[in-house]
Amino acid sequence: MVKLQKYDSAAYLKSDEAILAYLQEAIDTNDPKMVSHALGVVARARGMSQIARDAGVSRESLYRTLSDEGNPEFGTVVKVMRALGVKLAVAPAERDDCHAIA
């Protein structure tokens, strides 16, 4: 019998470049749940306890907030991103988006 292990993206996020690319892909989906999930994966890759301390929240609260059932407040997202050493940025949307800035 073959024993399978659950795939964990966090195991492959070993460099800053990989983390940035992973987060950018999540943000590009325009899906808040995907962004929240990606932040949770990156936090686990970097060490959830340290990220929670740096963000000023409990580890348990951070796990719960960034879980599939969680719905983080924007302030929490900003704190976690700051703790991860990344920031939000603004760029023009693609032309096929209905409200693109020219």
Describe, in plain words, how this protein is organized in 3D:
There is one protein chain. The chain is mainly alpha-helical and 102 residues long. Helix content is 53%, strand content 0%. It is built from five helices and no strands. The chain has helices at residues 16-28, 32-46, 48-55, 59-65, 74-84. Helix 2 crosses helix 3 (48-55) and helix 2 (32-46) runs parallel beside helix 5 (74-84). The longest helix is centred in the middle third of the chain and has 15 residues, at 32-46. It is globular and about 50 Å long. The N and C termini lie far apart (58 Å).
In percent, how much strand structure appears in the residues? under 5%
How many strands, which pairing sense, and closed or not: the largest β-sheet? Answer: none
Shape: globular
Q: What would you report as the Rg, rounded to the nearest angstrom?
A: 15 Å
What is the structural class? mainly alpha
Q: Overall mean pLDDT score? A: 90
DSSP summary, beta strand count: 0
- Quote the distance from N terminus to C terminus: 58 Å
Helix content: 40-55%
Given as residue ranges, the uncertain stretches (5+ residues, pLDDT < 50) are none
> What is the chain-wise order of helices and strands?
HHHHH
Separate helix tally: 5
